[in-house]
Amino acid sequence: MGNREQLHELRQQAHQAGIEGNSKMTEDQLRDALRRVGKGEQPQMAKHQSRR
To answer: Region 4-15: what's the mean pLDDT?
Structure first.
C-alpha cells in the first residue's frame, strides 16, 4: 500500500507543479517531469519529454 501512496503523492506534486493530465504517467515519468520542472522547464514540455 505504501507504493500506491507514494504514487499518489507524486501525482499531487506534479499537479502543484503545473503538470496537468498526469494520471496515466508512470512513477518514473512523474519523477522525470518533476525533475525537469525543477530545472526550469515548462510543465507541459517536461510532461511531453518525460513520456517519450
So the answer is: 95
